[in-house]
Structures are given as structure tokens and as C-alpha cells.
TrEMBL record, chains A, B:
Residues forming coiled coils: none
Domain Acyl-CoA thioesterase-like C-terminal, chain residue ranges per copy: 135-269
Cross-referenced SUPFAM superfamilies: Thioesterase/thiol ester dehydrase-isomerase
Domain of life of the native organism: Bacteria
Family annotation (InterPro entries): ACOT8-like_C, Acyl-CoA_hotdog, HotDog_dom_sf, Sec_Metab_Biosynth-Assoc, TesB_ACOT8-like_N
Name this protein carries in UniProt: TesB-like acyl-CoA thioesterase 3
Residue span(s) of domain Acyl-CoA thioesterase-like N-terminal HotDog: 32-112
Amino acid sequence: MTTAIRSEFDLGIALTGHPEEAGRYEAELGAGWQIGGGVNGGLLLAVAGHALSLEHGQHPDPVSISGYYLSASTPGPATVRTEVLRTGRGLSTGTASLSQDGVERLRVVASHGDLGTVDGEVRTSATPPQLPPPDQCIGVEHAPKELIEQAALLERFDLRLDPATVGWALGQPSGQGRIQGWFRLADGREPDPLLLLLVADALPPVTFDLGLPGWAPTVELTVHLRAKPAPGWLRVVHSTRNLAGGYFEEDAEVWDSAGRLVAQSRQLARAPRPA
Amino acid sequence: MTTAIRSEFDLGIALTGHPEEAGRYEAELGAGWQIGGGVNGGLLLAVAGHALSLEHGQHPDPVSISGYYLSASTPGPATVRTEVLRTGRGLSTGTASLSQDGVERLRVVASHGDLGTVDGEVRTSATPPQLPPPDQCIGVEHAPKELIEQAALLERFDLRLDPATVGWALGQPSGQGRIQGWFRLADGREPDPLLLLLVADALPPVTFDLGLPGWAPTVELTVHLRAKPAPGWLRVVHSTRNLAGGYFEEDAEVWDSAGRLVAQSRQLARAPRPA
């Protein structure tokens, strides 16, 4: 390591290659990334995506990454084993398995590319969320105490939620299934593709806005990335349209400071039991 | 086999267990499922999902399934190798690898459950598409000849597209990025969860409606299933909001005849080059 100061996120996804086993990496899941009973699923996806970045070399950026969550992870050591399935011209595809003490936590399949060289054409009909400026939004210091106590990772975020979508914090969920706000890391680290994997799972569960305040464990999370994000604030929208069959989908859009829709994600999560 | 008549779809996803290798199945990819240069990606996903259904036993239905497409498949024999990662109370998760002549075509991770026993609560804010009745929609017999010639599978579909979203067939794409219509199988086989995996990839690429008539190979396709579909016509909506970075997302919603949103899918596909 030659860098004198590294951000909490870079430390959180840091990997050490195994001296004898190709494709194997060791990680240390920090207690500061906990949420509810485990380590944040977006951080785990970034750890796995990072391992595949290292494997693929000329294709460092996740373009599409899918993770299936098998068991709750805990702070402490973790092992990531990767397998390269295909090395293509524009995309390379591989799998990553993150485990702790021999128990698999997360299985990932992903295609990586180089977002620095992508086609410039953009035909986006989606529009960025209309948000009050960050200083008129709601910081996590106003979040319910029970939420903060269960979410160590909130201290690492500078998260400012749109007042129009935080009625749930005052016992008045809108029922629309939408939470949106501004996001940046508290230590000032600028966004990059791996950070977007964390951001896709960084807001409170959108079911809070449906009046379901409980825990919503992720079954599956897929993130698609379209561009390297510009420095500065990100805008994030979480929404759901279909709570049914005991599960709900949570869609996230991440917009960068240049007004580009840089990432789209969808996860399937288990619906909290009604209070 | 005791059933005298099997549908084309059931034949298309039929599997034979390997006598000596646990978790291995043999399939025969039918020429009738071709589209463009290969076998339809939804059919391949259904073959892989079927293999995992057989492995999981008490969890026969895909609830979330993600496929990464590695190379174009061709009609003929294929081998599916499965691995069970976790057997849980409500969901079981596994991987499936579909290959031909030792070349991997598709890698899948999926969580299966039993959609016959799911929680009855439904909070769906999504609304079904408003479509003219099937007999006022556009059958594939009106599709451009070049399209039909490249899409043998269209003969197996009874697909009726909303006239409002087929301007592209007359050289007048709307630019909205939306194609919708009615779907059922031509031979009358009723829908079930495995068929929904095909349906999620059954309509023409939504980029046709953006004025991009070319081939749009799938990178990744994830389907979430929420209920067993009722018999009868399905309504399908394909849409996209973000063509950027050389790729576009294609979201599909599948509604059953009882008005339930039974499946949601998203795929990332390579954007066709502008004509």
C-alpha cells in the first residue's frame, strides 16, 4: 500500500490475493457496515464485484452483476473465490462466492467491462428525481433512534432524504412505495462503479413507505451500470410497485451530478410481516 | 411418460437425468425455438430453471432466476449441470450451467420455492396495460417477412400486439420504448411458472420501438415470479427507459387473466447499432 489515506469504503472492499490459490481473495467485513442483523448486502456485492475486477484486468468495471444472498454475514474475515467463465472483447463474465468459516453468504455472477470506453450514445427517457437541495433534505440525525442503532453504516453515509418521502419516520407512510434522496460518503470519497453497488442498497427499505417497518432480507440483487459517475452528490430513488407472494421488488435508480442515470438496480426482498 | 400428448413447450424443456452423474441433465434444443442467430434466451432460461425444479423437489417453482448468456446456442443436444447451494424452508438456491459440446452457453443462479403456498397479501400499485381485445390486435402474420424468417419460434406463439405499439413494423417507431400485447402458446398449453420465463423474453426487442431494428443480444436476464398464473391469455408489456453506454434495459411485466402481476423481469441487452 502506497496510499497514505484510504477511505472507509476502500478499506471495506479491500482484498488480499491468496498466495497459492488462483482466483481466491481474503476480505475483512467491517463492523461499521452492519445493518439490522448482518453486513449490508450492497457492500458484500461490492466486495465480490471487486474480486472479479481484479480477475478480469482489462475489464475492471461491473456492467451487470447479480447476487443471491444465502445466509446472513457477520463482521470478520471472509473468503471470495472467483471463476472466470468467459473473457470477451467487450465484456468478461465470471462468478464469485463469498463465504465465512466455510458457509457461503453470497453467490454472484457478473459481466465486467470498461465503462471508460463505452459508446457515447444516450437515449434516456427516464427523468431524474426532483429533490429539494441537500440542505433542505432530512439527514439521518433525524432518523428514529431504533433505526440508527441497528444501522452502523448510516454513520458512513451523508444521506439526505427528500422530506416528501420520509413520512414513515413520523408514523405517516405515504403508501406510494417510494423513498428518494441525496447520497455521498461521509468521508468525501468520490463515487466510482464499485461504490454504485453499495448505493443501490443504501437507502432504508422502500417498504417503510408502505407502513411495513420490519426487516426485509434481500433474496437477489442485480445492478446494471452504464457510465462512470461524475464526482459529487448522487441522487437515488428507491421504488416498488408489486408486493405479492410474500416478496416485493425494490428498484433503484442512481443519477450522478452530471444528470446521467448511471445505475439501475432491482432486488427481490422478503416482505416484512405487517405490524 | 404416460401423457399421450405433450405440448411443444414441454418437449422444448424436457430433460433426461444422467444415469451416473448427480445433478446432470440432457436436453434437446429444438430448431423451432430459434430467433435471430440462436435459440431463444427465455427458452434456455426455462430449461435451466426446469433442471433446478427437479433438483429442489419440494421447491419446484422459480421465484427469482438470473441468467448470464455466454455464447449463442444452436439447435441440438445440450447438457445442464446443476449445483444446489442452499436448501431453506421457503426457498432453495442453486446454480445451473447449460453447455453444448463443452462450451458454456448460459450460467444461471436461482432461488426456487412453492408458488402454490405463498402468502396471499397483495399490495400492487402497478396497473395492467390497457389493450384492445386480442381480435383487434396485430398477429404475427402481419409482421415483416424478414422478422418471421429469422424467428421460427413465432409460429409457436399466439402473439397479438397492441396496434398502438407496432408503428415500428410500418417504419414509424413511436420512440417511447414500449411494446405490449397478448400472449398464449399456439398449441393451447396453459401458462405455468416455467412458461413465464419464456414469456419474459418472447416479444420483439423493445428497441424496435426506438427505431433500432437490429439484433439485441441479451447479456443478463432476471425474472421474479409472484404467483402461479391463471389459465388463459397473458398480457405482456416490454419497456425501456435508458439506452446508454452501449446497452439498454428491457423490463417486462406479465399479467395473467385474473389481473395479477405474476412476473416481472429485467434484462440488460446490447444496443443495436443505429441503422
